[in-house]
Write the structure tokens for this entry.
Amino acid sequence: MTPATRKTKNAYPQRDNACARPVSAAALKARSAGRGTLALRRLLALSREYPRAAFLQAVTLAEQYGLFDLDRLERLTLRFVAQAYFVVPDDGEEPQ
């Protein structure tokens, strides 16, 4: 492997999928008490537990409002999951 390809290859590919975005993780760490490891672990657990699209949508919305409370972030994620997965048909019939 040449040094040029070594630089472009990501040494930790699981990190890209593990957390939302470095900006939100850095902001959460700055707002947390101490080193912020508990908050970052909780953020990582939320990202692993919920569908990626709903989680990223909730993180984006939370960043827009400056929201750093992880309980509220989880509720936002659940709201987006509910909208995506529990769609009620509009045809007026009862589901079978």
Observations:
- The two ends are 58 Å apart (CA to CA).
- The CA atoms of residues 32 and 38 lie 9 Å apart.
- The helical segments are 3-8, 13-18, 22-31, 37-49, 52-65, 70-85.
- Residues 17-85 form one domain.
